[in-house]
Amino acid sequence: METLASATELRAFLHGLPGVDQVGAEERAARLATRSIKTSAKAQAIDLAITMVDLTTLEGADTPGKVRALCAKGMRPDPGDPDVPQVAAICVYPDMVPTAVEALQGSGIGVASVATAFPSGRAPMEAKLADTRAAVEAGATEIDMVIDRGAFLAGDYLKVYEEIVATKEACAGAANDGHGAHLKVIFETGELVTYDNVRRASWLAMRAGADFIKTSTGKVSPAATLPVTLVMLEAVRDFRDQTGRMVGVKPAGGIRTTKDAIKYLVLVNETAGPDWLTPEWFRLGASSLLNDLLMQRRKLATGVYSGPDYFTLD
């Protein structure tokens, strides 16, 4: 983890990053989105996308029963086809972590928990860290934190940097297994407004120790977009070139169809490279995407779509 000496140095570094060519980024993302793939490659892409899904429920009405049902679906997405791979993680609120941990025991699926006053990030730092420690102590293997967008937009980069560092330390210090939880840092890119801000937030989070950078909470529109994800993928690629450390990327919010998912996979391959085409380094945050992936998978295998009640609704 790199330490920056002062707020002045951090500001100078972030504002010294090259500006993002907005037109160029949007045109490149649009061009890559038109790529077509062969049927055999599509089948592989669907299975790969399934393994990258962070299957998510983040509602005030979440119950233990709903979380257990989601975990069962993550482990066996299609009970009628044992060849369907399982998802990467189940993402829940901190109080639902024990339920998810129990339901997923022995499956190898991660338990991701949103913490640090999700989705607004508006809470004292002590509360955010307590939220994080409680989730990790309960068994969360991944923490999805939200940055203080108000501080970032006001130019208080050091505050955001120090919050990420402290949360990263809480992920490690509260773990019962000695390894700690991976930290995903959520920017809420719909509130950052500009691609330049997205690039700055990416570098800020990576230098503070983030294991993943994530677009959105899914509670603000626009959420994930291809151009925003392109900027983030360029950042992790360049960060590895400079430091030798890989950081993952997670677009989340608004990714609902197989066509959407495949566009993101093409974007990853053509921007960061094939090293990122694994659940270890790329995730898709979604609640309804899995159903469409399963329907398209069955269509490729049988030539017909399943009935609307074949897969469980989330």
Automatic annotation (TrEMBL):
Pathway: Carbohydrate degradation; 2-deoxy-D-ribose 1-phosphate degradation; D-glyceraldehyde 3-phosphate and acetaldehyde from 2-deoxy-alpha-D-ribose 1-phosphate: step 2/2. SMART domains: DeoC. One of its GO terms (biological process) is carbohydrate catabolic process. Keywords: Lyase, Schiff base. One of its GO terms (molecular function) is deoxyribose-phosphate aldolase activity. One of its GO terms (cellular component) is cytoplasm. It is an enzyme of class 4 (lyase). It holds the Pfam family DeoC. It catalyses: 2-deoxy-D-ribose 5-phosphate = D-glyceraldehyde 3-phosphate + acetaldehyde. CDD domains: DeoC. InterPro entries: Aldolase_TIM, DeoC, DeoC/FbaB/LacD_aldolase. Its EC number is 4.1.2.4. Belongs to the DeoC/FbaB aldolase family. DeoC type 2 subfamily. This is Deoxyribose-phosphate aldolase. The lineage of its organism: Bacteria, Bacillati, Actinomycetota, Actinomycetes, Streptosporangiales.
